[in-house]
Amino acid sequence: MEHERPARERRERRPRPERPARVKKEFTILYVDDEAPNLRGFKSTFRRIYNIHTAIGPVEALEIIKSEKLDLIVSDHRMPHMSGVELLRDVYEFNPNIKRMILSGFIKRDELDAAVGGFGIHDFVTKPWDFENLNGIFQKLLTTNPGIKDFSTLG
After folding, report:
1. pTM to 2 decimals?
2. CB neighbours (10 Å) of residue 60?
3. Residue 106 sits in a domain of what CATH number?
4. What is the Cα–Cα distance from 121 to 148, expressed in whole angstroms?
């Protein structure tokens, strides 16, 4: 009788469900923000699609940039010690091949223009962000060779 055999034997006879194969994530993104809830939300949203690193501010971000191969850096703008534009300028000087974008609710037009004219950013998205829109931007930036974005049409 089945119930008289030890539990271990019963378990061994059961077929194991197949686990889905892990998808190889081709691209690595670093998200920089000074608010931990924003970092957690971003990571939980995109971690199944991309390799995600997060940094709680520019100082931590600069350490990650030096130690990891990154394809895209997404940075908040208003942060203590260094703005997102300043961080992305440093990223450009370290490795101009890393794509750069600002994701922020607060940025002045002249700061955005200075970034574009000085070293270039590839895109800018306002908070709160929409998954479909942001993921579409990521796909475009990561799978094509986009130029520096012209933000002169922004109001």
Report:
1. 0.76
2. 14
3. 3.40.50.2300
4. 6
